[in-house]
Amino acid sequence: MLAIIRLSHALAVLHRWKKQAVEVARIDGVAICELPGLRGPVAAGAWDPVVFVPESWHAWHADHKRIVLAHELAHHTRRDPLWRLLAELACAVHWHHPLAYWMKRRFIMQCEYACDALVLGKGIDPKAYATVLCDFASQCSPSPLASAMAETKSLESRVRRMLKPPGSLSARALTLLALLGILTACSLSMIGRKHPKSADIPAAEVELRWSANPFPTEP
């Protein structure tokens, strides 16, 4: 019940934001709205996509606007607000299971990684992108159903990831893995079927084997 109340409150907050905000643009069906008192850009709306921006939106540098819109629109392209709502509902149903909350946090982190990759894939300089993220760093998302552009908890890992992407396996490592696989396959093929112990053979069968004539053609 507490989780449902929390979600209901979050939906009410988003509804109030939409009433207070002023739409300044619309891109690919996503409304760009200025919201008084907002510190950084936020993507929200599972069915009615919207990107909330601060009132200082018009004073931003053109490159900052382009980076912010690329990131927030990437959330809507991936339908992250809808998936985040489903994740919150899953935690509400499995409120007693700590793994559900852990999976939700990991899911939110992976969403940010995916959006960062989409932004960088458009040719935006990683250093410039990291600078914008640090400028909009916030302690947490203003709503459990909204995605803030830069949360302090995930900011460091995201900046490290974009400035130094995780490298792929080297040729030496791939060769080593292939050799280990071959050795494992050879070892498994050499393992024969376990022979039954004499204790496992019934006494009647043992007696029958001993009494059998090894040369049946001889009298």
Poorly predicted runs are: none
Say what oligomer this is: single chain
Task: Tell me the Rg in angstroms.
Answer: 31 Å
How many domain modules?
1
> Quick one: biggest sheet?
5 strands, mixed
Shape: elongated
Describe the strand arrangement of the main beta sheet, using strand numbers: 1-2-4-3-5
The rounded distance between the terminal residues' Cα atoms is 90 Å
Q: What's the total helix number? A: 8
Order of helices and strands: HEEEEHHHHEHHH
Proportion in helices: 55-70%
Mean pLDDT: 79
Supply the helix-strand structural class: alpha+beta
Beta strand count: 5
Q: What percentage of the residues does DSSP assign to strands (E)?
A: 5-15%
Written description of the protein model:
This protein has a five-stranded mixed beta sheet. The protein contains eight helices and five strands; from the N terminus they run αββββααααβααα. The chain has one domain (2-163). It is α+β, with helices and mostly antiparallel strands. The mean pLDDT is 79. Helix 2 (62-77) packs across helix 4 (98-120). Strand 1 and strand 2 form a beta hairpin. It starts with a helix and ends in an 8-residue tail after the last helix.
Give the secondary structure arrangement, pairings included.
Elements: H1 2-20, E1 22-27, E2 30-34, E3 42-44, E4 50-53, H2 62-77, H3 80-93, H4 98-120, H5 126-135, E5 147-148, H6 152-163, H7 171-190, H8 203-211
Parallel strand pairs: 2-4
Antiparallel strand pairs: 1-2, 3-4, 3-5
Helix pairs in contact: 1-3, 2-4, 3-4, 4-6, 5-6
